[in-house]
């Protein structure tokens, strides 16, 4: 009668022989399944999506050496004559058509129009012709109750080149986050610690700088709600052995037989 130790040795020996047999069968098998790769999966998406923000803030524009002439209010306005805010029949502010140039200049078109060459069209009087799809850029919409759409809630009526908080603190355009903080305290504190907003650059600051984006690099202060954006197509699914490729499916072709030409549609 065999002892428990002898039975254990027999079981282990049997398993070793079984695994060796399986390994030999895989190694010596002449019918290896070919590795098929869909060429569509290997294509590089060009151009690659940009990491730019939706807008270009005044601070970003100055730092990049861009044209800041549109930020000089008194290039057009008379400093001795404060402008009158125009109101619509519903009590909302009518955004001046003349500010369409500035509104479009601060938008970062390439953030959505990836790889498309865009040309700005102009009216006969030289004003920028706002695209039909972006006409809503000229509407005021800061808040849900029309109380925050008055221009002079944020802009100084006596010095248009300055911003002014509710307590009378005067700020420059590139200090806009402090203006936002005067009303949106909790959100501003979240932004300060990185819970709200966006950071570009490196998490590991030893490799490079981490840049916190200003509020108005994403939010238009005249209409802070982020507009709806058509998303880029998602990654293609991994196609397994024997499935038709994405290209074949797009062309309306039928499934391919393993190792042979595609079957005719009438078969």
Quick structural gist:
The protein has 267 residues and is mainly alpha-helical.
Strand content: under 5%
Helix content: 10-25%
What best-fitting shape do the alpha-carbon axes yield? Answer: elongated
Spatial strand order of the main sheet: 1-2
Cα-based radius of gyration, to the nearest Å: 32 Å
The secondary structure category is mainly alpha
Word description of this protein:
The chain has 267 residues and is mainly alpha-helical. The protein has a domain at 58-200 and 211-217. Helices cover 21% and strands 4% of the residues. The chain is built from six helices and four strands, in the order αααββααββα. It has helices at 4-28, 58-63, 100-105, 176-181, 185-192, 246-251; strands at 163-164, 170-171, 199-201, 210-212. Strands 1-2 form a two-stranded antiparallel ribbon. Strands 3-4 form a two-stranded antiparallel ribbon.
Structure characteristics:
6 helices, elongated, mainly alpha, two-stranded antiparallel sheet, disordered C terminus, two-stranded antiparallel ribbon
Please describe the topology of this protein.
Layout: H1 4-28, H2 58-63, H3 100-105, E1 163-164, E2 170-171, H4 176-181, H5 185-192, E3 199-201, E4 210-212, H6 246-251
Antiparallel strand pairs: 1-2, 3-4
């Amino acid at each position: 009668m065999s002892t428990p130790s002898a039975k254990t040795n027999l079981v282990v020996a049997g398993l070793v022989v079984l695994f060796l047999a399986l390994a030999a069968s895989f190694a010596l098998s002449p019918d290896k399944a070919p590795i098929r790769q869909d060429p569509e999966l290997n294509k590089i998406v060009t151009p690659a999506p940009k990491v730019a923000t939706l807008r270009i803030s005044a601070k970003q524009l100055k730092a990049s050496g861009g044209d800041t002439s549109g930020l000089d209010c008194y290039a057009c306005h008379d400093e001795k004559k404060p402008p009158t805010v125009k109101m619509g029949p519903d009590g909302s502010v009518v955004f001046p058509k003349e500010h369409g140039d500035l509104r479009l200049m601060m938008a970062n078109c390439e953030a959505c129009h990836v790889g498309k060459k865009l040309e700005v069209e102009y009216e006969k009087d030289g004003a920028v012709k706002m695209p039909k799809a972006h006409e809503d850029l000229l509407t005021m919409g800061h808040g849900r109750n029309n109380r925050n759409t008055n221009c002079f809630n944020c802009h100084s009526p006596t010095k248009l080149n300055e911003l002014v908080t509710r307590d009378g603190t005067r700020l420059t355009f590139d200090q806009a986050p402090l203006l936002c903080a005067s009303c949106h305290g909790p959100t501003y504190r979240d932004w300060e610690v990185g819970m709200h907003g966006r950071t570009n650059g490196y998490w590991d600051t030893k490799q490079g700088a981490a840049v916190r984006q200003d509020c108005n690099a994403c939010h238009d202060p005249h209409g802070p709600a982020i507009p709806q954006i058509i998303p880029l197509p998602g990654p293609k699914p991994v196609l397994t052995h024997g499935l038709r490729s994405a290209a074949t499916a797009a062309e309306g072709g039928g499934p391919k037989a393993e190792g042979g030409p595609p079957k005719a549609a009438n078969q």
